[in-house]
Specification:
- The protein has a single domain, classed as Trna Endonuclease, Chain: A, domain 1 (3-Layer(aba) Sandwich).
- The longest helix is centred in the first third of the chain and has 20 residues.
- By secondary structure, it is of the alpha+beta class.
- Strands 1-2-3-4 form a four-stranded mixed sheet, with helices on both faces.
């Protein structure tokens, strides 16, 4: 399902912020946005997580969604993958677009 421009921008902004923070904290980061290497697909359907980060022996799989973009099959695949890999965690983050403030 294609995202609306405002939710895509909200999504990509959040992914970029998280990826940049992880990188600044010493994580090797792959992210599904421009400027980063794309993470490998996960599971039989080869779902691509928004962020895959590793530091030492630990790996994080992070998926960012807006309220109307949640894909339960994808989330199950990421959870299952994290459960079956040693020292791997999965985080699901739901972000919402900022409200436009009314100028007076």
């Amino acid at each position: 399902m294609a995202r609306k421009r405002s939710t895509k921008s909200t999504h990509d902004t959040k992914v970029r912020k998280l990826a940049t923070e992880l990188k600044a904290n010493g994580w090797k980061v792959q992210a599904d946005i421009s400027g980063f290497d794309t993470p490998d697909g996960i599971g039989q359907s080869r779902f691509i997580p928004d962020i895959s980060a590793s530091k030492g022996s630990h790996t994080k799989i992070i998926e960012v969604d807006t309220p109307n973009s949640v894909n339960t099959e994808q989330l199950s695949s990421f959870r299952r993958s994290a459960t079956h890999r040693k020292n791997t965690s999965f985080e699901h983050i739901i972000t919402t677009p900022r409200r436009k403030t009314k100028r007076v």
